[in-house]
């Protein structure tokens, strides 16, 4: 509906910072893909494809990743506690294990009801379980008082940026390419994004010299650079940082008094090497050089949305604060209090993620089987997609390292760029739109994440089941190149 004088709001008088924000992951192509999906469901014929593949967003269960049985069984009892009164039916007829019932009882004891608010920063007992998980992961102590449960990691990012950014001169170093949550959030806050480019020639490595150049340029322009965002493993790149890279970033942050925002939601999605947390390396540096790094502020984030859990819709996540001033931390608590609390069922799912069935417990065998199958399936599809890209003319893509994405370079003919210009699009947008219209496969143009001038990319997940859709991309690409060469 168009704006009319009878309405108070129109496109010219709403918050200009909201209008300025861009979020390509759910942008024009995603909207069009949903229109195609609705048309197919409505029985429309004549489209050159029979299904829509949403490879534009890391939404595992939309693409048939099955929920982990233990998690969903516990959640079912939390949502309907009366079922626990029928323990025999659960155990003998519905396939529930005793530890499922025990965990549900434990959570209900500490939560009361998933329909009730919790403490603003989350259920204390759940925060304690997260602290124990972090201690086991990193080998260093963690305090539940420094842990804040959130509605997914995105909500945690929003909280932190609201507190960190003081005015329009507040700058945040953001990797390019990046997950557009960061640039969009900074636009809404009217703060300044300070981009630093990742090195594609080194598997999208994080180069501290490049970060320094961006920092110094922003500083010279009067920007108060306050924090650096690191996405590890990377989105959209999938790159995993080495311990040396992490040490270099922490050293730089220490020198320049920068808050480190470590987005670590893909920490279990690692195919090459191992995940190393910023918390672990920071604590190691503090141990090696007493006093030197005690002022480095670190906020690290995790989520139930990714990994083998894939429970995006339940909106569960948390962030941990390290070395933050207690008065600042109090303001962060106040900010999350304004939103009351994270979804309590999502908080419970976080507890299940960080405290899954252990070896010897009744549910462990099935949990381990399901978890491993999901991991191996992701790895297999990632490698199949990478192999296909290697065969495609003008496409360059490093081996999949982690996360849920590949971010290949595409080198397109000049005629394709000319055709794109006539439509008012960038060449990568034009390519991705043509791909969607020909195959039903929705990916995201590299321009939605940021890319070096003169380069073209797209991001695709490898979550969709099977490999037939991969063949569709190969076929489309050949026809596209032949048409525009």
From TrEMBL:
Its cofactor is pyridoxal 5'-phosphate. SUPFAM superfamilies: PLP-dependent transferases. CDD domains: AAT_like. InterPro entries: ALAT1/2-like, Aminotransferase_I/II_large, PyrdxlP-dep_Trfase, PyrdxlP-dep_Trfase_major, PyrdxlP-dep_Trfase_small. It holds the Pfam family Aminotran_1_2. GO terms for molecular function: pyridoxal phosphate binding; transaminase activity. The keyword Ribosomal protein does not apply. Residues 99-467 form the Aminotransferase class I/classII large domain. Transmembrane segments: none annotated. Keywords: Aminotransferase, Pyridoxal phosphate, Transferase. Belongs to the class-I pyridoxal-phosphate-dependent aminotransferase family. Alanine aminotransferase subfamily. Homodimer. This is Glutamate pyruvate transaminase.
